[in-house]
């Protein structure tokens, strides 16, 4: 059910990213210009166009319908999104397990305000490292990693 993303998946991937950003993050930033202007499916899809590094690093959960995606660069989990209607059904856990076990990904940045997301990663063995960064001059991110064994 998890496979490498194809160019045919790009619009679906973009839909999931845009939808999740709006559903999960708009409430923290209330930035209409970004969430309903700059952030759109067409521009996001172009970032994942055929031959791009983003597409090459992306995998999808596909059971006949693409319901989730994960992007991994090196050992970093860059993005993990599941269509909101399918959240809490184990898809995110499967994608995360795939990234950790098959791709050897072991760290990520999470939005500091995203308590649900941070709790999800903690349930799956990640811990807060204490590292923090500010992205785009105003987005606070916390680093989570799987402890060395």
Task: Write the element-wise H/E pattern from the N-terminal end onward.
Answer: EHHHHEEEHEHEE
Give the helix proportion (percent range): 25-40%
Percentage of residues in DSSP E strands: 25-35%
Please give the alpha-carbon distance between the first and last residues: 29 Å
The strand count comes to: 7
Q: Major sheet, described briefly?
A: 7 strands, mixed
Give your account of this protein's structure:
Helix content is 40%, strand content 30%. It is of the alpha+beta class and 149 residues long. α1 (10-29) crosses α3 (41-47). The longest helix is centred in the first third of the chain and has 20 residues, at 10-29. The chain is globular. β3 (66-73) and β4 (76-82) form a beta hairpin.
Attribute tags:
40% helix, seven-stranded mixed beta sheet, 149 residues, alpha+beta
SSE arrangement:
Layout: E1 2-4, H1 10-29, H2 32-38, H3 41-47, H4 53-56, E2 58-62, E3 66-73, E4 76-82, H5 91-102, E5 107-111, H6 115-123, E6 127-135, E7 139-145
Parallel strand pairs: 4-5
Antiparallel strand pairs: 1-2, 2-3, 3-4, 5-7, 6-7
Helix pairs in contact: 1-3
Write a brief structural summary.
This protein is an alpha+beta fold.
